[in-house]
Q: What sequence folds into this?
């Protein structure tokens, strides 16, 4: 018979080899013999062993998978599957054996579990499908992925279908919980936003009445005790308003509603506008407030001036609060310029105050945090200021930190990222050649101020000499061949004051040709008179800006700043609003706010109609057209948004092309309120509490873009000529009939006018709306207090032209200022010479 034998033998080389013998046993007439062959089967045996080992490893790996694995051949017969897959398809686990058909298994599963579903085959790619598998005790979510693995020859149907099943039940539950948490967070955020809006409205609305009515009361005739009480009310209201603003700002940040603007910023002007009003607080505490802008800081950049101002005022305000003696110094420098037209600026606010313990420094930037409870009791505050600063600086791409030591002061530093402007304006501190080589003497007991002023003078090509006292100044002046073109003296110095030094210099053989005094803002009026008395050429108020210092030096030498002499290209005029006798519809439901706004408007010479809700406003605007409508946002029956939409819809239906100017008034503090008002068809926006200045500025801005009335524009053009240069009777009434005081104040005002006019001219030439507003505001306020009516009217019109960017009109009005000043001087001289 036939035979096949595997056998193992020892080779002569000492190795074991496998042999294979196959053949047959043959019996014939010759006898019995074996006919066959013997092969060396060692390699085949080794290969088979490797295949078996690999198959075993593969099966183990498939069984170890935490996903269901199954493989079918090209005839859709099961080749292999793991235990995980059997658990997924427990109802048909008995069918999951090699050779079973795929469709038979699926049909049996869906029949046994009463589920109707089909299987979509996929070729050459993964196709994700999700379906439910029903099992005893519940179901589970399974994700299925299939891949056809074809042989290289695409014309043959052979191949394998590999399919994976992944249990995604837990992931599905987690996704559902995350979606529920997201919805809950969005609902909570919406509730927070609504609460913030309502809280803002409820707080600001009564505050509007308190602040406004107190201001009105202070403008009336009061005795000393009444005025003292009302001043205390106003001070408390202002303090409360600061706290409210801090809380609302922090709430807006927490709600993610705070955004930053991207508008042009004149950096030096911004710093001056922030620090000038704080100069009086510094003087009241006997502190020096000074600042420096590094020469490489650009004149203009793109960023958010409001938020930058908020951080600066907060930090400097804190420094003044926690400093009892010494100084508060502010430095603005450029860290770097980036390749993408970016700027990284660093600001340092340094004080000589109480300092902060090392373990408390990081906590200072947390919400409701101050160094300790005693600080809160002694200095007050919400503990939110630095937390707000950190958030704002972060929004502007920077960071904030502090270096401090107890009893030795603090140094707060912050950085912000701004963008470079396309065409930076000309540097306003460009010095004239006439200053090259001129000697200047700086007399100041504050070392920081001396160094910074000396740096500025050196930058302009001058030769500064600095001394710390009047005695040192006199010693320098006694040196042979020492003559100074300009002397800058601090008015407040220990020992011999600046005024006493100036008095001694009058009799000095090397008397200075130009002496300028540095005055504190709080004592400016009395100190200015002393300057005139001792023969000082002029004065500058602290904190001193280098641009103002340069202008003053050039003016004293009969020059003007070359950076400001070339006028910018004229822009097209826009209609101007004169601000005289407007017809105003006030839409307000709160009686106190009605009375306040009505009184403010009437005192400005406007005629006022009142509507107590939006529905009444719609009715009144249908009967007549008003110059402007001041529309409250939250009212019964119909709110401001609804009323505005109704008015705009009626205007559109009329087809007459007339548009009623509408300015929103709201006590809300929410991000997007302004946009919501403008989207509803409003033309402007005011946030409560409202003061007369901000209200009329916004009205002027809105009406500057509206049609206006031709007759009012004519009256505005001729109004100044019909007003007296000075109403002496009214001025005397303000001074309780003190004629000598009026003469003195009027003379000081007239003497100061050229410098003020030069400042306004510089702002107009530079086309700088913000700086012009600041310059005109101070000058016009003094003119109004003096009852210089014609000058005040002309200044108001220049301010309006600047607000409307009607620079060619501002240029024409500017030419009238010298004539108006001469008229004021002539009338004052005639009045002073007339016996009382």
A:
């Amino acid at each position: 018979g036939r035979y096949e034998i595997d056998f193992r033998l020892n080779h002569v080389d000492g190795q074991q080899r496998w042999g294979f013998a196959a053949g047959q046993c043959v019996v014939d007439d010759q006898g019995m013999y074996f006919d066959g062959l013997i092969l060396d089967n060692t390699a085949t045996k080794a290969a088979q062993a490797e295949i078996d080992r690999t198959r075993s490893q593969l099966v183990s790996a498939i069984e170890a998978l935490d996903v269901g694995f199954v493989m079918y051949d090209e005839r859709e017969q099961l080749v292999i599957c793991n235990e995980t897959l059997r658990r997924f398809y427990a109802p048909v686990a008995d069918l999951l054996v090699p050779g079973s058909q795929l469709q038979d298994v699926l049909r049996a599963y869906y029949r046994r579990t009463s589920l109707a579903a089909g299987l979509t085959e996929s070729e050459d790619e993964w196709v994700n499908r999700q379906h439910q598998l029903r099992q005893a005790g519940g179901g589970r979510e399974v994700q299925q992925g299939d891949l056809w693995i074809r042989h290289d020859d695409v014309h043959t149907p052979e191949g394998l279908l590999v399919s994976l099943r992944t249990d995604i039940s837990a992931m599905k539950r987690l996704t559902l919980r995350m979606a529920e948490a997201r919805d809950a967070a969005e609902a909570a955020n919406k509730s927070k936003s609504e609460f913030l809006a309502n809280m803002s409205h409820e707080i600001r609305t009564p505050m509007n009445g308190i602040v406004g009515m107190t201001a009105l009361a202070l403008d009336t005739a009061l005795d000393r005790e009444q005025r003292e009480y009302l001043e205390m009310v106003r001070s408390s209201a202002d303090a409360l308003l600061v706290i409210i603003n801090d809380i609302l700002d922090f709430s807006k940040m927490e709600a993610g509603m705070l955004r930053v603007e991207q508008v042009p910023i004149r950096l030096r002007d911004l710093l001056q506008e922030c620090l000038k009003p704080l100069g009086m607080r510094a003087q009241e505490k006997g502190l020096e407030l000074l600042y420096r802008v590094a020469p490489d800081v650009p004149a203009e950049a793109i960023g958010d001036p409001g938020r930058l101002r908020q951080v600066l005022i907060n930090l400097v305000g804190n420094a003044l609060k926690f400093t009892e003696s010494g100084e508060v110094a502010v430095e603005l420098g450029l860290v770097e310029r980036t390749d993408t037209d970016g700027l990284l600026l660093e600001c340092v606010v340094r004080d000589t105050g109480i300092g902060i313990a090392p373990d408390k420094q990081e906590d200072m930037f947390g919400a409701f945090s101050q160094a300790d409870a005693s600080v809160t009791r002694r200095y007050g505050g919400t503990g939110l200021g630095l937390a707000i600063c950190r958030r704002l600086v972060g929004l502007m791409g920077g960071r904030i930190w502090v270096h401090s030591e107890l009893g030795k002061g603090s140094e707060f530093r912050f950085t912000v990222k701004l963008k470079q402007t396309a065409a930076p304006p000309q540097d306003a501190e460009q010095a004239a050649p006439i200053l090259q080589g001129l000697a200047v003497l700086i007399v100041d007991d504050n070392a920081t101020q001396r160094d910074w002023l000396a740096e500025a003078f050196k930058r302009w090509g001058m030769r500064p000499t600095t001394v710390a006292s009047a005695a040192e100044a006199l010693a320098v002046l006694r040196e042979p061949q020492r003559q100074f073109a300009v002397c800058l003296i601090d008015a407040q110095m220990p020992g011999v004051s600046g005024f006493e030094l100036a008095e001694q210099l009058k009799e000095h053989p090397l008397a200075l040709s130009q002496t300028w005094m540095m005055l504190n803002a709080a004592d400016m009026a009395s100190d200015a008179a002393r300057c005139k008395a001792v023969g000082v050429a002029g004065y500058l108020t602290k904190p001193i800006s280098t641009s103002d210092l340069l202008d003053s030096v050039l003016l004293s030498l009969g020059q003007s700043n070359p950076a400001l002499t070339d006028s910018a290209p004229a822009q097209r005029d826009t209609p101007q609003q004169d601000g005289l006798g407007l017809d105003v519809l006030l839409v307000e439901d709160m009686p106190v706010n009605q009375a306040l706004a009505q009184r403010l408007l009437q005192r400005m010479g406007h005629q006022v109609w009142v509507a107590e809700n939006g529905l009444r406003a719609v009715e009144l605007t249908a009967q007549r057209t008003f110059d402007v409508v001041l529309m409250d946002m939250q009212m019964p029956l119909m709110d401001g948004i609804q009323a505005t939409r109704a008015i705009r819809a009626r205007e559109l239906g009329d087809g007459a092309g007339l548009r009623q100017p509408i300015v929103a008034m709201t006590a809300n503090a929410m991000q997007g309120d302004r946009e919501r008002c403008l989207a509803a068809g409003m033309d402007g926006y005011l946030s409560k509490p409202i003061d007369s200045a901000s209200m009329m500025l916004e009205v002027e801005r809105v009406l500057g873009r509206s049609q206006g009335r031709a007759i009012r524009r004519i009256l505005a053009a001729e109004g100044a000529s019909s007003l007296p240069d000075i109403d002496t009777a009214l001025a005397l009434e303000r001074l309780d009939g003190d004629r000598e005081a009026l003469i003195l104040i009027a003379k000081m005002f007239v003497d100061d006018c050229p410098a003020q006019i030069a400042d306004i001219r510089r702002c107009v030439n530079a086309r700088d709306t913000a700086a012009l507003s600041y310059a005109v505001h101070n000058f016009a306020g003094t003119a109004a207090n003096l009852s210089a009516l014609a000058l005040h009217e002309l200044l108001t019109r220049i301010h309006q032209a600047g607000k409307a960017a009607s620079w060619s009109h501002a240029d024409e009005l500017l030419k009238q200022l010298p004539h108006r000043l001469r008229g004021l001087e002539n009338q004052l001289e005639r009045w002073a010479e007339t016996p009382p």
Notes: The chain has a mean pLDDT of 75. The longest strand covers residues 16-28. Residues 169-218 form the longest helix (50 residues). Residues 127 and 366 are 51 Å apart (CA to CA).
